[in-house]
Amino acid sequence: MRWRTAITVLLGLLLSAGCSAAAATNAGHVEADVTFSKDMITHHEQTIQLAEVGADRGTTSYVRELSKKLIAEEQADITMMSSWLQSWQEPVPVPPAETMGADLPKGPDFDRQWLKALAGHLEHGVHMAEAVSKAGKHGPTLELAGKIRSGQQAELAEIAKHMG
Fold first, then answer.
1. Nearest-5° angle of CA 139, CA 150, CA 34?
2. Maximum alpha-carbon separation in the chain
3. Does pLDDT of 5 surpass 60?
4. What is the C-alpha separation between 72 and 92, in angstroms, rounded?
5. Per the domain annotation, does 13 fall within a domain?
6. In angstroms, rounded to a whole number, what is the distance separating the alpha carbons of residues 104 and 121?
7. The domain spanning residue 38 has which CATH number?
8. Which CA distances in Å does 151 have to 78, 86, 110, 131, 144?
């Protein structure tokens, strides 16, 4: 009888420890953090698609270099947000099938049209980052949102200079 009691107590402790570990993994975030990560991953994938087109078709060094920079930065953010979603047992979005920027004109007007498309896209990213800054709770998500907001605002200012 003592063994049964001991085993029952031990199993109860093990089960509660497992539940505590799961709760600790999910602690510190709210639905706004999850939504932001999912939506921003998709947004970053679109940025990468647009940047790949810019790296391939850009006629100025500014467009080609900005494209390479964006690809590296966005991939790093995607990796980080994907790990958060996985730790929260949330699905990670798959890249969009349609290639953003593929419909942009080739030739001398490409850079201007590409910068215009990128500017609109980055403005949307700033709005997404501002929204999670108001509703999110996950510290690393809020830090990333701040980085995205300030980084994309700086890019928008630089793009405006190049569009003259």
1. 35
2. 86
3. no
4. 19
5. no
6. 14
7. 1.20.1260.10
8. 16, 26, 24, 16, 10
The residue type of 74 is E
CB neighbour class for 13 (10 Å; exposed up to 12, middle 13-18, buried from 19): exposed
Q: Is residue 49 part of a domain?
A: yes
Q: Read off the pLDDT of residues 84-98 as tens digits, 9 standing for 90 and up.
A: 999 999 999 998 888
* pLDDT at res. 155: 97
What is the reported pLDDT for 96? 84
Domain count, the chain: 1
Rounded to an integer, the average pLDDT of 112-124 is: 98
Domain carrying residue 62: 28-163
| CB neighbour burial string for 97-136, b if at least 16 within 10 angstroms, e if fewer | eeebbeebeeeeebbbebbebbbebbeebbebbeebbeeb
Reported as a single tens digit per residue, the pLDDT across 22-38 is 333 455 999 999 999 99
State how far the Cα of 38 lies from the Cα of 94, in Å rounded to an integer.
10
Give the number of other CB atoms < 10 A from CB of residue 139. 11
Q: Does residue 143 fall inside a structural domain?
A: yes
Rounded to whole angstroms, the Cα distance separating 29 from 133 reads 12
Residue 11 lies in a domain: no
